[in-house]
Amino acid sequence: MTAALSVHEISVSLPGPGGLIRVVDRVSLNLERGEMVGLAGESGCGKSMLALAIMGLLRGDKGHVEAKSVALGHHEAGPSSSHGMVGHRGKRIAMVFQEPTTALDPVFTVGWQISAVLRRRFNLDRAAARDRTLEALSDIGFSDATDVYRAYPHQLSGGMRQLVMIAMATAIRPEVLIADEPTTALDVTTQQQAMAQLRALQRDAGTAVLLITHDIGLIAGSCSRIMIMYSGQIVESARYETLFQKPLHPYSAGLLAAVPRIGSATPVNGMAGHVARLTEQRVGCRFAERCARAIPVCRETRPTLLDREGRMIACHHPL
Q1: Predicted pLDDT of residue 80
Q2: Cα–Cα distance measured from residue 63 to residue 15, given in angstroms and rounded to the nearest whole number
Q3: What is the pLDDT of residues 10-36, one digit of tens each?
Q4: What's the whole-number mean pLDDT along residues 269-284?
């Protein structure tokens, strides 16, 4: 069966003092129809940059994108195709942006912005677009959907703007949804409501969801698979229960060890060091400087992402 989204070796380079600096390095992924996959890693690992590259939103001085292929179903939509994602955004593929303050236009009402997408992409008349927008706002948890519809973004809190972005995505009902930290600004109760809507979209519309988050627990409760990203590369990919029970990459283990567990006497252990700066382009494993298991080959040769024990891992000296 053809994947809803198939990305093969996509890379992103940004201009730096000495030329282009690669910040996403040959990442490949597949999302099946009706599947939710988690993408986790520290801030600065390239998760959002990867999402923007897939969406075709990095142009000119914002980033140079290369990919062997990016396909939506049977349709090639990568940087090498004639129109890329332009004809598919807002219809077949959508994104919930990490920062809703800048994602919404301040001079138009919330209702106008959601309805405009529906009218343009689905040829709905004004009344039908309004009804579908109000339905999406109600489903996401707004009891006063009409008031939110008429409101300007600055009249809403950060959490409410985040919910509006999710409502826009559910109104479109795309084949693929990239959700970049969709619950960051939400309290626990509202977070549950938002995730329920994403799962409903996944279940009822068959939408494939890429969930980008720092919240490992959120992935455990929602996703079938998890990909761990470090310094622009995928270092481990597995079914979430497999990775949670037995992480093989030292970085994956470090992330899990840093998650507090209620009622557990096990102390929370943070990882030493920090994600390498963009200018620190190392030859070998990019995690080697922080890894207690590093051996000489780790600093000399980049590990290849290979199948090991039923999951993909890039490590010379796994756990």
Answers
A1: 73
A2: 7
A3: 999 998 887 888 999 999 999 999 999
A4: 80
Which amino acid is it at 75?
H
Provide the residue count of the chain: 319
How far, in Å, CA of 3 to CA of 191, rounded?
A: 28
